[in-house]
Design a protein that fits this description.
The protein is mainly β. Among the domains are: 40 residues, no CATH class; 88 residues, N-terminal domain of TfIIb. The strands form 6 sheets. It has a 4-stranded antiparallel β-sheet with strand order 3-4-5-6. A hairpin with a 3-residue loop joins strand 21 and strand 22.
């Protein structure tokens, strides 16, 4: 009896609108495998972060690492607690709690310079040198910040439920109340800010704006004219990759790679699944 090769499913696939049979890929990722002489591919198990899940009572809310800061240590928010995970020479991990509280209900945002890690939970903006206690930063009129990133050594801080962003000057730990600018394309709230190469992008509810540095210390940033993107993102989905591009999920469920301009990288199955998740979250009041 001849053997029949069953091809591997390389991704999850579901199209309810087409009444197609679903293929579910759980905790695996696809990669090429030259040792497989038949399909030249393999499905590899995605490892769990067991060591980090043991720190704190949970739930795990954020993992962050920035090469060049704190010896490349991994920072982990578990519940209201912040932990530093340092890998020793013998490959064991030492976990240390940093004194202070990370409040809020959502996913905290972090950004690091060479000297400090900045973290916001939508309630309080704080910083640490990687081991010392968290220190709160006074914001103009006690405005809560929801997103952070570092651009040209400036710390960019997005105001909650607003189209305004502030910045902390290089080498400083305070916000001058006059150091702010406003997204100009649409009057929608900016959800996240992410540096992309020599630009930074304001990712809003219904629009996306790329900005650049001007070299003028009195007005250090300006929007790049002639580049308009009339769609927004789903809050909390923008993640920067090692190649400096940014992956984000649009408000319509399409996954984009942002590197110069947004390029869709998802197929209709992914967009449909994400849309269903977005609508479920909206109905649940998330």
């Amino acid at each position: 009896m001849a053997l029949t090769s069953i091809p591997l499913g390389i991704r999850s696939w579901v199209r309810n609108r087409g009444d197609e049979p679903a293929w579910v890929l759980t905790n695996l990722f696809f990669e090429t495998n030259p040792g497989n002489g038949s399909e030249h591919s393999a499905l590899i198990e995605r490892p769990a972060l067991v060591n980090f899940l043991e720190a704190g009572d949970g739930p795990g809310r954020r993992l962050y690492r920035q090469p060049g800061f704190s010896n490349g240590d991994l920072f982990h928010v578990s519940g209201t607690e912040l932990y530093n995970h340092h890998m020793e020479v013998n490959r064991t991990v030492t976990s240390t709690q940093i004194v202070g509280l990370i409040d809020g209900d959502g996913t905290p945002d972090m950004a690091a310079t060479y000297d400090y890690l900045f973290i916001t939970d939508g309630v309080t903006l704080q910083y640490t040198d990687g081991s010392s206690d968290l220190v709160a930063i006074d914001t103009p009129d006690d405005i809560p910040m929801v997103s952070l990133d570092v651009f040209d050594t400036y710390v960019m801080c997005v105001q909650n439920n607003s189209d305004r962003f502030y910045w902390i000057n290089p080498g400083e730990l305070t916000i001058d109340p006059l150091n702010f600018a406003t997204a100009e394309r649409l009057p929608d709230a900016v959800l996240q800010v992410r540096a992309v190469g020599d630009e930074f992008w304001l990712l809003g509810e219904k629009s996306i704006e790329p900005w650049r540095a001007t070299g003028d210390p009195d007005a250090p940033f300006q929007r790049i004219e002639g580049r308009r993107f009339d769609f927004g993102i789903f809050d909390g989905t923008a993640v920067r990759l090692p190649d400096s591009s940014v992956i984000a999920v649009s408000d319509q469920g399409t996954v984009y790679n942002i590197a110069g301009q947004p390029v869709p990288i998802s197929d209709p199955s992914v967009a449909e699944s994400v849309r269903d998740a977005i609508f479920a979250a909206i109905e649940a009041g998330a």
